[in-house]
Specification:
The protein has helices at residues 13-24, 44-49, 65-75, 94-101, 138-144, 159-165, 177-184, 219-242, 256-268, 280-292, 299-314, 317-330, and strands spanning 3-9, 31-38, 56-60, 80-85, 89-90, 106-116, 122-126, 155-158, 190-202, 212-213, 216-217. By secondary structure, it is α/β, with parallel strands linked by helices. The strands form 2 sheets. Strands 1, 2, 3, 4, 5, 6, 7, 8 and 9 form a 9-stranded mixed β-sheet that branches. It has a two-stranded antiparallel sheet with strand order 10-11. β6 (106-116) and β7 form a beta hairpin. The two termini are 31 Å apart.
């Protein structure tokens, strides 16, 4: 069984060599390594070229992550395809473990990742502490529009699944292309899980998705996340309809985590000189209704979340921003019901 590793790179020259060395060090022999450079200008291409015939390079103009995924998959021959961010690493037994745990019913396997620092230092933690969900997750996804999953480098996809959903729309998925394939996978097959780390996820200053930077809230990143989830909701509805599945559009954008971001954005917009779309009380009431629908939460927990959100709603802006920062950094009650996972891009 051939496994394709598609490394996508944009201006990560300081990490690309360690990434490729980890790919070449795999003990599993039947593999191909494709490196898609998305218009880097930092010397990455010269470093990639040094690997000669041991890898298959693809050099293209900058088009974003979605276009890099498409370009790599267009030439990949593997039965299993792993998209790997060029600042991350694979442990030597990764592909071997994937092959041993694979079966034909799967659309993907996700696996845990060790957290490492900018220089590759072990941070002593894994990306997800709880067991990863597995099996038939289609019902969960159709009902909620999301599920707990790993980032780009912690997923391996079945070729038959990818052939059904790719190429992806490149203009809409310049960033976070992993969200597109990860959220569609449970609709079209089973999901496998390996809780032991098979790779390393690098935490560094190039983080692009966390809404907290230097202890300040980033309104633009919060807005980008809101828009990305709205796009995902639309894609889930379209693909579900195409395959005879019933997904109620709005399941994702009407859920607690999404509405929480909307409230944060609308409440804090004046801090950054932007106009509110509506009074935050409207967002609070929608959020309150979504919280009451959550399953498996105690009445005490629900009351605690309501109290925190109400306090955030009524707080002066300078206090409200600090509440948001503390919530993301310290995992306070504002966080989603499940453990918040580290975000980088």
């Amino acid at each position: 069984m051939l496994i394709s590793i598609i490394v996508t790179n944009y201006n990560y020259g300081q990490y690309i060599e360690s990434c490729l060395e980890s790919c070449l060090a795999q003990i599993y022999a039947s593999k191909e390594i494709i490196v898609v450079d998305d218009g880097s200008s930092d010397g990455s291409r010269e470093l990639i070229a040094n690997y000669g015939s041991r890898i298959t390079p693809v050099y293209k103009d900058n088009g974003g992550q979605g276009s890099a995924f498409n370009a790599g998959f267009a030439i990949a021959r593997g039965d299993i395809v792993l998209f790997l961010d060029s600042d991350d690493l694979l442990l030597p037994h990764c592909l071997d473990a994937l092959a041993r745990n694979w079966n034909s019913a799967l659309s993907k396997i996700h696996f845990n990742l060790k957290l490492i620092g900018p220089e590759g230092e072990d941070l002593g933690e894994t990306y997800c502490r709880a067991p990863l969900p597995q099996g038939d997750l289609s019902g969960l996804l159709l009902a909620q529009g999301s599920y707990v999953t790993m980032p780009t480098s912690g997923n391996a996809f079945a070729r038959p699944f990818l052939e059904k959903v790719m190429p992806m729309p490149e203009a809409e998925w310049r960033g976070h292309a992993d969200v597109y394939v990860m959220n569609l996978a449970p609709l079209l097959g089973q999901v496998g899980a390996i809780d032991q780390p098979l790779g390393c996820y690098r935490i560094h200053g190039g983080s692009m998705s966390s809404p907290i930077v230097n202890s300040r809230f980033r309104l633009d990143r919060c807005r980008a996340s809101i828009l990305r989830e709205a796009k995902t909701d639309k894609v889930l509805a379209e693909v579900s309809a195409r395959h005879g599945l019933k997904y109620e559009q709005g399941a994702l954008t009407g859920a607690y985590p999404h509405l929480q971001k909307v409230l944060l954005h609308n409440k804090l917009a004046p801090v950054f000189g932007e106009k509110r779309q509506r009074h935050p009380l409207h967002d609070f009431l929608k959020l309150s209704a979504s919280i009451r629908k959550l399953k498996g939460m105690s009445a005490f927990k629900i009351a605690l979340i309501h109290s925190w959100m109400l306090l955030f709603l009524l707080a002066p802006l300078r206090w409200a921003e600090q509440m948001a920062v503390i919530s993301y950094q310290k995992g306070a009650i504002l966080s989603a019901p499940r453990r918040r996972l580290p975000a980088r891009r």
